[in-house]
Design a protein that fits this description.
CATH topology of the largest domain in chain B: Rna Polymerase Sigma Factor, Chain: A
Largest sheet of chain A: 2 strands, antiparallel
Strand content of chain B: under 5%
Oligomer: heterodimer
Distance between the termini of chain B: 15 Å
Helix content of chain B: 55-70%
Structural class of chain B: mainly alpha
Number of helices of chain B: 9
Distance between the termini of chain A: 59 Å
CATH architecture of the largest domain in chain B: Orthogonal Bundle
Largest sheet of chain B: none
Structural class of chain A: mainly alpha
Shape of chain B: globular
Number of strands of chain B: 0
Chain lengths: 297, 210
């Protein structure tokens, strides 16, 4: 029997391991057996597989260090899961599912947000109206002194950039944030899931920018294409073209009025839906870990 | 010259698969536990804790960590007992325990402890049989120590597959289901792990002969 190491080096050892595991077809089996028959090292290798497997099975186990019975306190602490939750957990691998949901929600939020910025237009009912930011009835906000026409852009859109204008714009923020609802709340919630995406909207001052972003219009206080801007909190009077409507300011919570007037924007709905999915995913992702920590795992 | 088929067949004989005679009792106890009887669940614990600890100990090379994994497995079983859908209670508990062991292995991957410290600990050694010669007993202890060290040096995915296949007698499909990987992956891990193990033990191969 040839036993030179050089010869053995050319032999397929993995094939012998597969033979030992019964994972070969007929052709491979013949090849492996031929290898064993013709090479002492291969024969030793194959014999060693068996000896090691036997020794592994016979590896002694120390006595268990304690009794694993559950106490009443353990049972109360652990609680019981319903069959539905257990099945969901088992099939869905809750955390992986949560991660996927959060990712989908995040992507959706970013996509809808990008759509609002780069392809403004929104609903047809407001598409042709000038960009108008309405100061909510906050002290001083509706004072004529704070009204200022912004720069006209093709006669359609006015953008506020001057300092006095920041007062009503900024003061509109709390009113809107405090009064409205689904969109603002969703935006805030989305900021949790997609902080990077919405940080700019929430941190950079003029909240109306964030709110108008919801509606698919000017998300930042910079020049927008003519006709692309939409009313932030309510439809502007025709021909207004000014940044600020002091006299016809809608009541607090005017976003609701906007929805009533124009119907919900599909982007708003999509934004809210994606944000909801993201938040649900975040909860699914974090809750099992929090629960296990609470159990003192 | 060993014949491959003979060795493979011999291996199959080493792992007899008989129906668990206590299965009826287990199912009855599960039924009671589902209705909220903690005592019934604790009877299940009593019946299976030794087996589960032995199983997990080979996967988690530390007695305390293995105990933690087994405890976590029983807590998980209690929490999810409503999801038991028949079949072998022993296998169901085994799968939960293996998953718990793998969770612990992943969690402690960055903080590896000394593997199989019991084999280094003179205060605990396998119980000696009265009719075994001291020389053979010493040989067995040394073999266990060397083998445990080699096993602990394997990547835990390979070690888990080898232990489940060689020691606990699971087939490739069952291991794949337990570990959440394909059958091909399981086979590859076992074959490659077996080769690594043998090469690691090559200097001590005389311990495993005869």
């Amino acid at each position: 029997m040839p036993t030179t190491p050089a010869t053995h080096a050319t032999h397929d050892e993995l094939l012998l391991a597969r033979l030992y595991g019964g994972d070969v077809d007929e052709r491979e089996r013949g090849q492996a057996l031929n290898q064993i028959a013709s090479c002492r090292d291969c024969a030793d290798l194959f014999a060693d597989f068996g000896a090691i497997a036997t020794a592994t099975a016979a590896l002694p186990v120390p006595p268990r260090p304690r009794d694993f019975k559950l106490t009443e306190a353990d049972a109360a602490r652990v609680g019981r899961r319903s069959a539905v939750w257990s099945i969901f957990d088992r099939l869905g691998r809750t955390r992986a599912f949560g991660g996927a949901m959060m990712t989908a929600g995040l992507v959706g939020v970013v996509f809808v947000g990008a759509l609002s910025v780069f392809a403004p237009g929104g609903s047809a009912s407001t598409a042709d109206k000038p960009l108008t930011v309405v100061a909510a009835p906050v002290a001083g906000a509706s004072s004529p002194g704070h009204e200022q026409s912004g720069q006209k852009n093709g006669g359609d859109t006015a953008i506020a950039t001057t300092a006095p204008n920041q007062v009503p714009v900024a003061s509109a923020a709390p009113a809107t944030a405090g009064a409205t609802s689904a969109s603002a709340a969703t935006a805030a919630a989305a900021a949790t899931a997609a902080s990077a995406a919405t940080a700019a909207a929430t941190d950079q001052g003029p909240l109306p920018a964030a709110t108008t972003g919801d509606r698919g219009s000017a998300a930042v206080p910079t020049a927008q294409p003519a006709g692309s801007g939409q009313a932030a909190f309510g439809p502007a009077a025709d021909g207004q073209g000014a940044y600020g409507v002091p006299t016809a300011a809608p009541p607090v919570g005017s976003l609701g009025a906007t929805l009533t007037d124009n119907g919900p924007d599909a982007r708003q709905v999509a934004f809210a839906a994606f944000a909801g999915i993201g938040i649900l995913g975040l909860l699914l992702l974090t809750m099992p870990r929090l629960a296990s920590r609470r159990r003192g795992r | 010259m060993p014949d491959g088929q003979a060795v493979t067949d011999a291996r199959e004989e080493q792992v007899p698969r008989v129906e668990d005679p206590g299965q009826g009792i287990d199912v009855a106890l599960v039924g009671q536990a589902v209705r909220g009887e903690l005592a019934a669940f604790n009877q299940l614990v009593e019946r299976h804790q030794d087996h589960l600890f032995a199983l997990v100990y080979r996967l988690v090379p530390d007695r305390d960590q293995a105990a933690d994994a087994v405890q976590e497995a029983f807590l998980s079983a209690y929490r999810n007992i409503a999801s038991f859908r028949g079949g072998s209670v022993k296998s169901w508990l085994g799968r939960i325990a293996i998953n718990a062991a793998m969770d612990i292995q992943r969690a402690r991957r960055r903080r590896p402890s000394q593997p199989y410290p019991e084999f280094e600990d003179e205060s605990w050694q396998p119980p000696a049989e009265s009719d075994v010669e001291p020389e053979h007993q010493a040989l067995a202890v040394e073999r266990s120590r060397v083998l445990a060290a080699a096993l602990s040096a394997l990547p835990f995915d390979q070690r888990n597959c080898i232990v489940l296949y060689d020691v606990d007698g699971y087939d490739y499909g069952e291991i794949a289901r337990i570990m959440g990987v394909s059958v091909g992956t399981v086979k590859s891990r076992i074959h490659r792990g077996r080769l690594v193990l043998r090469n690691t033990l090559a200097p001590s191969r005389e311990l495993f002969r005869g």
